[in-house]
Design goal:
alpha+beta; SH3 type barrels; three-stranded antiparallel β-sheet; about 15% strand
Length: about 190
């Protein structure tokens, strides 16, 4: 019996090796798509390397927070803010689209960009700026459209257009019975 088990294990290992090397040799890999680019080791790092080495916070003026085009990068889609009397501006969520990407929900204090966080949320606005500094951008929701107004047609015109209703006449009843006769029910 042990010889049979040993023979089975040996032949299973031989079959696995043949299958592995057969697939390695006979199957050709798919070519890379035409739009791919090879990785180049000559490209320099992209981004702020000082954050990698835990350098101190970069001042807001150095990050470009005072750029006039900074506000155009962000679009406020919606806000969920508590009432002013409850928790103030420290809590809330804003739905913000950054750089024409799909909007994401950010809590107050969440990092939106490299050096920018959501500082506060109000009823129809949100402020963005550095975590410890003055607001750099205030985003406002677009104003609500004016409510639709109009007038209803005169009530007399509605009554004239309604079809005439014939009055209901009394159903003759059988003497001695309290209710009118009923039609027989056909049950099958």
């Amino acid at each position: 019996m042990p010889a049979r088990i040993a023979a089975f294990v040996v032949w299973a290992a031989v079959a696995a090796c043949i299958a592995f090397w057969g697939l390695r040799i006979l199957v050709t890999p798919r070519p890379a798509p035409s739009q791919t680019q090879p990785v180049s080791s000559t490209d320099s790092l992209r981004g702020d390397v000082t954050r990698l080495f835990a350098a101190g916070a970069v001042p807001a003026a150095a990050t470009g927070a005072t750029e006039p085009g900074l506000a155009s990068r962000f679009k406020l889609i919606g806000v969920m803010a508590p009432k002013e009397g409850e928790r103030g501006r420290e809590q809330g969520i804003a739905l913000i689209a950054v750089d024409e990407k799909p909007p994401r929900a950010y809590r107050v204090g969440a990092r939106i960009d490299n050096a920018l966080v959501l500082q506060s949320v109000a009823r129809r606005s949100a402020t963005i700026g550095p975590s410890q500094g003055a607001p750099a951008v205030q985003l406002d929701l677009p104003p609500l459209p004016a409510p639709a107004t109009g007038s209803l047609p005169p009530a007399a015109g509605l009554l004239q257009a309604a079809p005439a209703v014939e009055p209901i006449t009394a159903v003759p009843s059988i003497p001695g019975s309290a209710s009118p006769p009923r039609a027989p029910i056909n049950r099958q």
